[in-house]
Design goal:
It is built from 7 helices and 5 strands, in the order ααβαββββαααα. Helix 1 runs antiparallel to helix 6.
Length: 195
C-alpha cells in the first residue's frame, strides 16, 4: 500500500508540477511585483479590409468584428467609443491587447496590437478559467480542468506526504514536531489577521 501511494505521490506531482510552479511564482509576483515581470511594449498597427456587420448596438457590433477578424479575447466595455474617427473598442486576452477602430466609410479596420510578453501570460494563468470568447482551442479551454485537478493533486500530495513520512520509523517524532509547529504558526498568523 505504501509503495503504491509513493508512486502516485511522485507521478501526480510530476504531471501537475507546471501548475504548481505557475501558482507559486505568480503568487509571489502578486505580492512583491518583480520588475522583470512587467509587460513588454511590443506594439504594431495594421489595417484590414472586411465587410463590417450591420450596427445594432456596441456589444453586438464589437463581437461580430472580433469574430470576423478571428481574434480571441474579452471585449472591454469601458474601451468603446463611437465618434467621427470611427467605432473604437478593445479586445483583451492574457497574451495580447487589441485596440480596434472600425471605419464605416471605407469598410476598413485599424488594429493596434500590443503583445504583453511571456511573464504577463504566465501570471494570468494563475486565475485563468479557460473561457476566452472567440476561442476554439481545446488546449486553452482545457486549462480550467487541469487547474482543478492540480488543486486535488495538491491536497492528495499533502495528505500522502504526511502519511509517507509517518510510516518512516526514524525521524517520526521530529517530523511530527515540525508538522505541529508549522500548523500552529499558520493558525496563529491567520488568527492575528482575522482579529
Amino acid at each position: 500500500m505504501k509503495r503504491k501511494i509513493v508512486k502516485w505521490h511522485l507521478y501526480a506531482g510530476l504531471l501537475f508540477f507546471p501548475c504548481f510552479i505557475i501558482f507559486g511564482v505568480s503568487s509571489l509576483h502578486f505580492n512583491h511585483h518583480f520588475g522583470f515581470m512587467k509587460k513588454s511594449d511590443d506594439t504594431r498597427s495594421f489595417q484590414k479590409q472586411i465587410v463590417l456587420p450591420h450596427y445594432v448596438d456596441n456589444k453586438q457590433f464589437s463581437e461580430e468584428v472580433r469574430d470576423s477578424l478571428q481574434l480571441m479575447g474579452t471585449i472591454s466595455p469601458w474601451g468603446m467609443a463611437n465618434d467621427s474617427g470611427g467605432f473604437r473598442f478593445v479586445v483583451v486576452h492574457p497574451g495580447c491587447e487589441y485596440g480596434i477602430t472600425a471605419h464605416f466609410d471605407n469598410n476598413t479596420v485599424t488594429i493596434r496590437e500590443n503583445r504583453k510578453g511571456f511573464w504577463p501570460v504566465f501570471n494570468a494563468l494563475h486565475a485563468f478559467n479557460g473561457k476566452l470568447p472567440g476561442n476554439n482551442s481545446l488546449l486553452v479551454s482545457g486549462w480550467s480542468y487541469y487547474q482543478s485537478f492540480s488543486a486535488l493533486v495538491m491536497l492528495f500530495s499533502i495528505i500522502s506526504g504526511i502519511y509517507i513520512f509517518l510510516k518512516r520509523k526514524n525521524e517520526r517524532t521530529a517530523g511530527l514536531y515540525i508538522l505541529f509547529s508549522a500548523v500552529s504558526i499558520s493558525f496563529f498568523i491567520m488568527l492575528s489577521v482575522w482579529l
